[in-house]
Design a protein that fits this description.
By secondary structure, the protein is mainly α. It is 83% helix and 0% strand. The protein folds into two domains: 68 residues, no CATH class; 37 residues, no CATH class.
Length: 115
C-alpha cells in the first residue's frame, strides 16, 4: 500500500476493505448523490478496486440514474400542477438543492457564536 500525506495507511486499509465488500453498491448509489458521484472514482482508485468491476458498476449506476430521472421527469412533467406552475416548481427544486448548504452555513455561523 502506497503512503500518502493526505490519507493514513490505516484509513486506506479500511477503505480498501470497504470497497472489497461494498464497492459495487457504493459506486451505483454514489451516482445518485452529487458529491459522492464526484469522489467515488478517486476513492475506488485509492482502494484499488478492480477497474473492470468499477467500469461495470459505474455504467450500471449511470444507466439507472439516467433512466430513473428520465422517467421521473416524464411522470412529474405530465402532472397538471407541475405543468401549470413550472416556474414555481423549478424555483422549489433549486431551493431544496441549496438547502443543505444553507443549513451547513447557518450551523457553522451559530456554532461560532457559542464560543
Amino acid at each position: 500500500m502506497r503512503r500518502t500525506r493526505l490519507v493514513s495507511p490505516a484509513r486506506l486499509a479500511y477503505t480498501q476493505g470497504f470497497f472489497d465488500r461494498y464497492g459495487g453498491q457504493t459506486i451505483v448509489i454514489a451516482r445518485f448523490l452529487p458529491i459522492a458521484r464526484t469522489m467515488a472514482p478517486f476513492v475506488a482508485g485509492m482502494a484499488r478496486m478492480d477497474p473492470k468491476r468499477f467500469f461495470f458498476f459505474n455504467v450500471s449506476g449511470g444507466l439507472l440514474w439516467v433512466i430513473s430521472l428520465t422517467l421521473a421527469g416524464f411522470w412529474f412533467g405530465n402532472l397538471p400542477f407541475v405543468r401549470d406552475n413550472l416556474t414555481a416548481v423549478i424555483l422549489g427544486i433549486i431551493f431544496v438543492s441549496l438547502l443543505p448548504g444553507l443549513i451547513a452555513i447557518a450551523r457553522a455561523k451559530f456554532a461560532g457564536k457559542k464560543s
